[in-house]
Amino acid sequence: MCKMEKTIKTYGRTELATHYFPWMRPDAAWHKLRSWLRINPRLSHFYDLRRRSFTPAEVSLIFAELGEP
Fold it and tell me: Are the C-beta atoms of residues 61 and 8 closer than 8 Å to each other?
């Protein structure tokens, strides 16, 4: 299976979630990604994120912790 390189850029939270869970509805994908963020100690501060997007630095950290989608 070929792994697709994701670009480090600003992602909307639902956009990023659908890259991790493409088979899920966008809202369900966001809830699933949010639960992954909550249980990861280095990413748990994103759990209560009120913004609707992740900065490139945040995306880089998420990719480093969870792997690229």
Answer: no
